[in-house]
Amino acid sequence: METLKIIVMALVQGITEFLPVSSSGHLAIIGHLLNIGKSTAILSVALHAGSLLSILAFYYKRLVSLCMPGSYRILALAALATIPAAIAGSAVKYFDFLDILFSNLFFPGFGLILTSAIIFFGIRERPVSHGLDKMTARTAWLTGLAQAVSLIPGVSRSGSTIAAALRLGIKREDAAFFSFLMAIPAIAGVSFFEILNYFLAKPVPDPDSPVATLSELQIAAGIAVSAITGYFALRILENTLKKGRMNMLAAYCLAMGIFAIALKIVSMTFKI
User: Fold this and answer.
1) Is the pLDDT of residue 76 over 80?
2) Mean local confidence (pLDDT), 259-267
3) Alpha-carbon Rg of the chain, whole angstroms?
4) Cα separation of 251 and 117, whole Å?
5) Host domain of residue 180
6) What's the CA gap between 64 and 254, in Å, rounded?
7) Rounded to whole angstroms, how far apart are CA atoms 17 and 181?
8) Domain total of the chain
9) 155-187: per-residue pLDDT in tens?
10) Does position 88 have pLDDT exceeding 70, yes or no?
11) Residue 181 CB: number of other CB atoms within 10 A?
12) What phi-psi label fits residue 266: left (phi over 0), alpha (psi between -120 and 50 degrees) or beta?
């Protein structure tokens, strides 16, 4: 049963990490329905490692090209853009806000509604836009601030960063690529420290959270499922951006946000 729950969570992570519908919000909702509890935050980090593999596989050629002379400027801009999320993430980790935010569905619910607004009003490419070769440090920094905001459960990282890049004049395909380029150090850093802590500290199992006692093999299975589904989700996002059909995803986020809030109210009312 625990393995099945992990696979379900991995499928949700793989699909929702790259589509601008918030993987954190969906993981919080699914975690509540599956009674996974506070370990949802820890599991979310592990499954994000699978998402990292998806990015590396999908953008392999473009990532290799960035290692060539003349492309270092884009890497520097991506590094600059990761600073706000790194600072915000460190603060969240230090003050132990993550479990608190994930354990209360009101936060993911309102975050999903905010994501809906971001997609609806933000993902509109400017009539005159340019590629990453003309991106400024200011654009990179503001896009990085959007990534920091996405630490709130329910706020889509891809949705907020792609929307910010588009509004700042970056082309659609380059906005998506830069969004996931920013995600590489962010996901890699968090995943590395969480996985290192898992193997070194071996946290005490929480009797109310079955995933706290998962084996290394089960975690590996979750990462693999997340990586495979994430790769195909990137293809779906690419086609969705080209066809300009993001409003459907905005409506979906609104519906899921309302559902999360209603689910929390019902669970509080009937002590579920």
Assistant:
1) yes
2) 88
3) 18
4) 9
5) 2-270
6) 38
7) 14
8) 1
9) 998 899 999 999 999 998 899 999 999 989 878
10) yes
11) 24
12) alpha
